[in-house]
Amino acid sequence: MHTADTQSAGPVASGDETDQRNTRLVASCRLPTPWATFRMHGFEEPATGREHVALTLGTIADGKPVLTRVHSECLTGDALFSRRCDCGPQLEAALAAIAAEGRGVLLYLRQEGRGIGLLNKVRAYALQDEGADTVEANHLLGFDADTRDYAVAASMLRELGIASLRLMTNNPRKVDALEQYGIAVAERVPHVIEPNPHNANYLRTKAQRLGHLLAGH
Ligand SMILES: Nc1nc2c(ncn2[C@@H]2O[C@H](COP(=O)(O)OP(=O)(O)OP(=O)(O)O)[C@@H](O)[C@H]2O)c(=O)[nH]1
Ligand SMILES: [Zn+2]
After folding, report:
1. What is the pLDDT of residue 5?
2. Dihedral (Cα; 65, 68, 70, 75), 10-degree rounding
3. 3-class SS at 185?
4. I need a surface site. Which of 22, 24, 129, 145 has the fewest CB within 10 A?
5. Where exactly are the transmembrane stretches of this chain (predicted)?
6. CA distances from 88 to 94, 151, 187, 191 (A)
7. How many Cα neighbours within 13 Å face the side chain of 124?
8. Pocket of ligand 1 (CB under 6 A)
9. Active-site residues: which are they?
10. For 41-71, what is each residue's pLDDT tens digit?
11. pLDDT digits over 77-111, tens only?
12. Which ligand does the CA of 71 lie closest to?
């Protein structure tokens, strides 16, 4: 098992006062998991009070592209074992990949339900139970299909001293958004999970309507 105990002292600020500082690093600690013992860094977004975390492993502020997962909160998939989506297995696979490499970062962003919040996601799921797809359900509730913003992710990465990523994602819009906020994506690493009978339609909709790169959909 890899351990974060030997990694460099901690996050390094870029020193550039013109950076958009949307987040503030509050505290860091050890986080043992089944895959590795990570460093966990807790951030707050002063403008909104939202709290986010990053898990890091190894030496990450050395300028070389860092294997990275930018994961959006999904309480149902990440914590409650829901099979409606692919979030839980993606989270596990990302931590396993970072541990296997001995170096990397996972940002856990508190933008549940593609930014619409937990209870609106439950409303969206109820509409999907009646036949709407994931995009139609958001629209019926008066939201865009995806209301997430990655300025916070870019700010956290800068505070961790990371400027270049090997990003585990199937979402080209996530790559574009991070680059727009000044983070280089040296490589997109596909992060495809084997579908199950409950999420096959959802994954097809993501590929067809949200532009996700999921081979076979
Ligand atoms: N509004 C809404 N949000 C959902 C639904 N299913 C999952 N989510 C949320 O979607 C977010 C994950 O986004 P995804 O579209 O699965 O994937 P992504 O992060 O864009 O792309 P990847 O990096 O490839 O995983 C999490 O915040 C989930 O809570 C849904 O049916 N409706
Ligand atoms: Zn999910």
Report:
1. 42
2. -170
3. strand
4. 129
5. none
6. 10, 24, 23, 12
7. 26
8. 72-74, 85, 87, 90, 111-114, 116, 121, 124, 134, 138, 169-171, 174, 191, 206, 212
9. 146, 148
10. 999 999 889 999 999 999 999 999 999 999 9
11. 999 999 999 999 999 999 999 999 999 999 999 99
12. 1
